[in-house]
Amino acid sequence: METSSGNIAIELDETHAPQTVRNFLRYVAEHHFDGTVVYRVVPGFVIQAGSYEADGGYRGVHDAIPLEANNGLSNLRGTVAMARTDPATATAEFFINLADNHSLDHHADDPQNSTGYAVFGRVVSGMDVVDRIAAVPIGGVGPFPSQAPTKPITILRISVVH
User: Fold this and answer.
1) What number of other Cβ atoms are within 10 A of residue 17's Cβ?
2) pTM (2 d.p.)
3) For 34, what's the count of Cα atoms within 13 Å in the CB-facing half-sphere?
4) Spatial separation of the C-alpha atoms in residues 97 and 30, rounded to whole Å
5) All domains of the chain in start order, with CATH
6) Fewest CB within 10 A of the end CB: N or C in the chain?
7) What is d(CA 42, CA 47) in angstroms, rounded to the nearest whole number?
């Protein structure tokens, strides 16, 4: 992932989150993320990106995917997970955990698989870039104005490297 703040390499985990990885790769192949911004920064918690442009505009998305939070992976620092509202509403929004966020994990007492946020990858290099992004001034434009960087941080391109 090439950003205006530097590069972040993410390793996807198709074994534990196959539908989520396929969904993410579909958006990558369509260049959906190219030119979008990191629109949410919550220091000590997450940075989030996906479908918003610097002016607050929103790019259309495909149908939501099933929740794969019950996959044995935990929302640890450096992991990448799908953002969502209700259980099966994840589309293209994703976040990188800045800390171990166990409160975002699937709850063991949930047989319906309706809790948690599906981890589908992890940062393998560029966590220093993630931390730099997490330290920018916030209060800009977007769906979370109080958490949006004041100076847009653009995702220039996400590409697949084997």
Assistant:
1) 25
2) 0.97
3) 11
4) 25
5) 2-157 (2.40.100.10)
6) C
7) 6
pLDDT in tens, 31-57: 999 999 999 999 999 999 999 999 989
Q: Which helix (H) or strand (E) holds 42?
A: strand 38-42
Per the rule left: phi > 0, alpha: psi between -120 and 50, beta: everything else, 142 is: left
pLDDT in tens, 66-83: 999 999 999 999 999 999
The tokens describing 11, both together, are 């390793």
pLDDT at 51: 98
As beta bridge partners, residue 4 has none
Going by the DSSP 8-state scheme, the letter that residue 78 receives in this structure is T
Task: For residue 24, give the 3-state DSSP assignment.
Answer: helix
Q: In what order do the strands lie in the sheet with 38-42?
A: 9-12, 119-125, 79-82, 94-97, 46-49, 38-42
Cβ atoms of residues 54 and 141 within 8 Å: yes
